[in-house]
Amino acid sequence: MKLVTAIVRPHVVDGIRERLETLGIQGMTISEVQGFGRQGGHTEIYRGAEYKVNFLPKIKVEVVCDDAFIDEVIESVTKEAGSGKIGDGKIWVTEVSDVIRIRTLERGRDAL
């Protein structure tokens, strides 16, 4: 099993969710986060004063899936979130040793 973590722009989350549902992925977790990468934030003007916004709003999407689905999950996220512009985000994949469904105590693939 793998944990796929993606940091993406907020407006692409619904599209990612829809693509993952078509793959049969039954759950995902999202968190509102802030950060910056190569774009390094941006400057804004408020009431005539210019100031730098260092941390941009992003969404962290987390999906635990079976190894067989990993390429499809990554492809779904990249197709939905990719615009070819700086700030599209990042994806990383982490090995998951076990998953337990609290309600039924199912483990592994059965818990997904």
Characterise the protein shown here:
The chain is an alpha+beta fold and 112 residues long. It has one domain (2-111): Alpha-Beta Plaits. It is 20% helix and 37% strand. The strands form 2 sheets. The chain has a 4-stranded antiparallel sheet with strand order 2-5-1-6, with helices on one face. Strand 3 (42-46) and strand 4 (49-53) form a beta hairpin. Helix 1 (13-22) runs antiparallel to helix 2 (70-81). It is elongated. The model has no long low-confidence stretch (mean pLDDT 90).
C-alpha termini separation: 10 Å
Annotation, overall tally of beta strands: 6
Q: Please bin the fraction of helical residues.
A: 10-25%
What is the global morphology?
Answer: elongated
The radius of gyration computed from the alpha-carbon positions, rounded to a whole number of angstroms, is: 17 Å
Return residue spans where pLDDT drops below 50 for at least 5 consecutive residues.
none
Count every helix, treating DSSP H or I runs of 4 or more residues as helices.
Answer: 2
> Mind describing the biggest β-sheet?
4 strands, antiparallel
SSE ordering = EHEEEEHE
CATH architecture: 2-Layer Sandwich
CATH topology type: Alpha-Beta Plaits
Q: Give the quaternary arrangement of the chains.
A: single chain
Structural class label: alpha+beta
